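Lab notebook page, bench 4
Experiment: in silico fold of construct C2
Operator: M.H.
Input chain length: 968 residues
Purpose: comparison with the prior construct
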Amino acid sequence: MATLGLSLVVGPAHAGKVALLLERFLADLDRDPWLVVPNRADVDRVERELIARRGALLAGTITTFDGLFEHVARAGGDVRRVIGPTERSLLVRRVVAGAHLDGLGTSARFTGFADALGIALGELDAGLVAPEQLDGDVAGLVAAYRAELERVGAWDREALRRHAVERLARELTAWDGRPVLAYGFEDLTGAEWSLLRALSGRADVHVSLPYEPGRAVFASLRRTAEDLVELADGRVTELAPASVRYLPPALAHLERQLFEDDGAAAPLDATIRFLEGAGRRGTLELVAQEILAITAAGTPPEEIAVVCPSLDRLRPALETVFGSFAIPAAIEARSRLAQSPPGQALLSLLRFAWLGGTRRELFRFLRTPYSGLSRQEADWLEGRLRGRAVIEGARVLEQLGQLRPGKRLIPLDVLVDGAQAPVAAVRSVAAGMLRSAHGMQAPPTGEHARRELRAHDAIASVLDELERVGETGSPVSREDVIAGLERADVRGDGAGEPGRVAVLDLMRARTRRFDVVVVVGLEQGTLPRRATPSPFLDDDARRALDERGARLLRPDAASRDRYLFYTACTRARRRLVLAREAATDEGSPREASPFWAAVRGLFDPDDVRAQTTRRPLSRLAWPLEEAPTERERLRALARVVATDPSGAEALALANGWERRLRRARRAFSRPTGVRQPAAIAVLGGRETFRVTDLERMAGCSAAWFVERHLRPGQIDQQLDARMRGSIAHVALQRFYTRLPGAVPGADRVTPANVEDAVRLMSECVDSALESGLRIDVSELARRELGESLRRDLELLVRAEAESRSTFAPRQLEVAFASYELAPGVAVSGKIDRVDVDAMSARGIVVDYKSGSAPSARQIHDEDRLQIPLYLLVLRDQLGLEPVGGVYMPVGGGRRPRGMLLDGDEKVAGFAAADYLEGDAFGAELEHARETAVALVERARQGDVRHDPRGGDCPAWCDLWRICRKERP
C-alpha cells in the first residue's frame, strides 16, 4: 500500500499532467478511486476518454468538488435538503428586509444589495468564516442568514461544504481511504483546502496543477502551488515542457515565450492568424468567414472553438452573425431565463398581470406562440387598443372584454382572478404556454425546441424551489415569483456536440482541446477584464480574513486573465486565430489589448502583417470572390455595378440574378407616375379636390400621393401636433360662437372686454378637451395640454384685442362642397373664419396656423393656395368683397401674415409687405386659380413626380422610405 499523503504534479500546457493523473486513476481502479474534475461537462468527457482506454469502468467515481463534498457530508447521516439558487436568493432578500442596519442601511434600499450580499455570503462560507470573525452590519447579516437556514432546516451549497469539512475534522471514519485525484483548478477556497488537507492524512491524494516556476503566465497560481508543495512534503513531480513535440512550431513558440521578456522573434505561418474588424458585427463576420474557410478545408465544426472573455456581452451578436452565415454553434454557457423567448414572454405577462404593467407588456406575450392567440387576432386587438391610445392595465382589460365578448385569455385570467396561489398559477400558465407553442400531437424536435424545453425546465425548477419555501411555512408572494424567474438561469448547449462549433468562455476553455481556437475580444477594457469589487469585502477585509486561513485574497485580475489567455491560446492543436475590434460601430478607434500586442511581438513583423486581415467600417460589402453567403454575394454584385456595369450584368446572367440586379439598380430612379389603369380611373373620376390637397401637391406631388392616397399612418393614436391643433380649432369655434352672448354687446375682442374674453376662452378650452380628447392619456399629459392651449389661445385673444382691424368674426367653419375653378374642375374645403366689416360687404379670410405664417411673397413663390382660393369662394359663393386673407398663428406671439388689398380703405394692422395693389391682388387670385387647375389635371392623369418645393426634400419629411427619393 502506498504511503498516505498528497502528491503534486506540475508543468506547463501540453506537458502531460492530466494524462499522468488519468494513468494513476486507472492504476488504482481496484481501490475504487475518486477523480475530481472542474465541471459537469468534464465529467462526461473524462468518462468517455477513460472508457475509450479500458473499454469499461467497473470501479471509480468521477465527479466535481461539489460531488465529493456532498458524499462526505451525507455519509455521516445528518442529512438535510440543499436549497437551490432561487430559494437562497429569497432567503437573502428576507434577511435584508428584516435586518436593522446602520452603516449599510442606505445601500440596502437598492435592489442589487441582496444580490451582492448573496455573493459575499457565498465567499465567506467558502472560506469557513464564522460570524464572530466579522464585525459591523456584515456580521449581523451573516448570522441572520445562517439562522434562517437553521429555521427552515436546510443547507445551501456552502453550508454543505462546511459540514463536510467539520465532519472530516471530528470523525476518523469520515473517509474510507479510497484514493482521490483532482485537477482543473487554480485557486482553492478555504473549504477546498481544508478538504484536501484532511483527505491527504487518510488516503492517497494526487493533485495536478498547471504551473512552471518563474513564468509570468503562472504568477496568479503561485500561492496555490506553494501551499500544495508544502503539503506534498517533497512528493512533487515536475514535468518538462513538451509542446515542441505536439504543436506546430509557431504555437509551440507561443506556449514557451508568451509574456516572457527575453523571447526572440520567430517566423510565423498561417498557424496563427490575426483579424481586425470595425464594429462588433464586422469583427464577428470576419471570424465567421475564417470559420467557413477552415471547415471548407476539412476541419469538423466540433474541432473549432470560439473563446470569449464574456459570453453575455457577445451572445446576441454571435447568434445573429453565425445564424446568417449558417454556422452551427453550441453556446456552452448558462443564459438568463429572462433572455429566452419563453422566459421573456412569461415575465412580460406576469409584469402586466401582477405589477401594473401596460399594454406593451401584455402584447409582448400575446404576440408569441405561447399565448394560444393567432398572430392575426393579436394584430387586430392591438390595433384597436393602439388606435384608442389605451395603455394602462385596467383600461386594457376593460377594452379587451369589450372587443372579445364571451371569450377568455386563459393565461391572463388565471393570473388576474387570484383563485390559485402565485406558484400554482404560474405553473399552470407555463404548462399552457408549452402546449400552445408545440401542441399535443407530436414531441418537440429540433434545436429551437430543445432550447425552449430547457427554458421550461428552468421555470419548473424555480417554481419547485418556491413551492418548497411555501412548505416551510413562509408565504411566497407574487413579487417573489417574479424575482425568482428574473434571476433564473437556463442550461447552455452541451459540450462537444458533433457538427457544431463550440462557443465558450475562458474558464470553460482551460480544460478542453481543439484543432482550431478563435479568441475574440482582444480590445483594451475587454481583456484583461476589470475587477469587480465587492461592496461587503474590500481588499483590507479580505487580507485580514486571509491571514486567519479563509483564503479570500484574490489574485490580481490582470494576472489571472494573463493565465486564462495563455490557456486559451494553448488549447489549439493546429491553428490559433486572434480577433479584435479596431474601431467601434461609430468609427471611433479602439486600443488593442496588451495581450494582442504580446502575441504579435513574439513573431517577425513582416510575417505578422502577412497573417493579419483587416475589415474597415467603410467596407459594407465583401469582395465578390470572398463573399461567404448568397446574400453577401448579391450585395457585392451591386457594388461591382458602380465600376463594371457590363461585368456585373454578365455575372448576374450566369447566376440567375438578373431580376434582383435590375431592382437594385433602379431602386432610387424608378418612374413614379401612376400607370395602373384602375388607379388612373379612380384619380380621373374625382369631381372635386380639397384645397389643402392641392396645396400639398404643389409642395411635392409624390408626398401628396403617399399622404392622401396611400395614407400611411401610425397605428398608435397619440397626443400629437395634429390632435392639439384640432382641439384648438374646436375651442376657437366655440369661443367666437359664445362671445356675443357671454360678453353682452361684444362682437369682437377689445381692450375693454379682453379679461372677460380670456376667461371665456379658458372655459372653451376645457370644453374642447372634454369632447375632443378621445384617447387615453395620463392626467399629467391632459393637464399639460390644457395649460399650453390656454396659454397660447390667451395670447391670441390678447393680440386680437390690440388689433387695429375693425372687422369682426361673423362666420365660423365655413364649408364649401364644390367651387368650380374652370369647367370640370371643382374644389372643396372649409374656411376657419370669415371676418366682416360691419359697415360694408367686405370680408377677410382667417386661417389658423400652428406654425409660422407665410407672407404674401411666400404665398406666391411657394404656391400656397389656401388663402387665394378661399378669397375666390368668399367673393363668388358668400357674396363678400375679398379685401384680404391672413394666417393666424396660434401661440408663440407670432404676427398674422398673408395677403391684403392695399388702398385708402385697406384693413389696418398687418405687416406692410403683405399689402398688394389692386391689380397685383387680383393677379394673385388668378394665379392661384390657374395653378390649381393645372394641379387637378396632373392629379387626374396620375402625374406623380419627385418634385419637392426647391428641389430638395425638407429635413422634416420622413416619406422618403416609401417614395424612394434618394437623399444626400
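Observations: The mean pLDDT is 90. The first strand starts at residue 5 and ends at 11.
Next step: discuss at group meeting.
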